[in-house]
Amino acid sequence: MGFSLLEMLVSMAVVAILLAAGMPGLQQSSERVQMQVWSERILMLLQQRKAFAMAENRQITIAMDSIAAELPNGLSLKHNFRAGSPLVFEGNSGFARAGSIELQNAGYGSKIIISGLGRIRRCQSVGMALPEFRAC
Question: Which DSSP symbol is given to 134?
């Protein structure tokens, strides 16, 4: 009344084929979620630091190296802030040093743009479409 060895092997082969067919979609979904989560974290960090600078009426400097050090493997960060001119939010006005931060993984790219007036926005820079991001 049980299963024969042949029936078990065939059913295991069918399950393995179905799982293998779904793996690329799972990997792509994982990369998309990774991009959404980390770009949101960095965006929120910048907005928080800007608000803190204005509330405390003091200058706040953001160290890009510390942000890059926290990123998981497979996610890279590029920015155009130099050691002599880091990202700074001014306390009395909320103004900032203008520049951009770009995140990339194997399938997606996100860019966070900071204007001189302190406006912070996020867009899709490269890769496959992220539905909640506008194109840069």
Answer: -
Burial class (CB in 10 A: 0-12, 13-18, 19+), 98: middle
Average pLDDT over the chain reads 88
Predicted confidence at residue 89, as pLDDT, reads 96
**113 C-beta neighbours (distance < 10 Å), count:** 16
**What DSSP assignment string belongs to 59-71?**
-EEE-HHHHHHHS
Structure tokens at 103: 């995140």
Q: How many CB atoms lie within 10 A of CB 125?
A: 19
Q: What are phi and psi of 5, to 5 degrees?
A: -60, -40
The answer to whether the CB of 103 falls within 8 A of the CB of 38 is yes
Nearest CA-CA partner of 90 in 59, 68, 67:
59
Residue partners of 10: CB distance under 8 A and separation at least 6: none
Residue ranges and CATH numbers for the domains of the chain are 27-127 (3.55.40.10)
pLDDT tens string 77-106 = 999 998 778 999 999 899 999 999 999 998
What pLDDT is attached to residue 1? 65
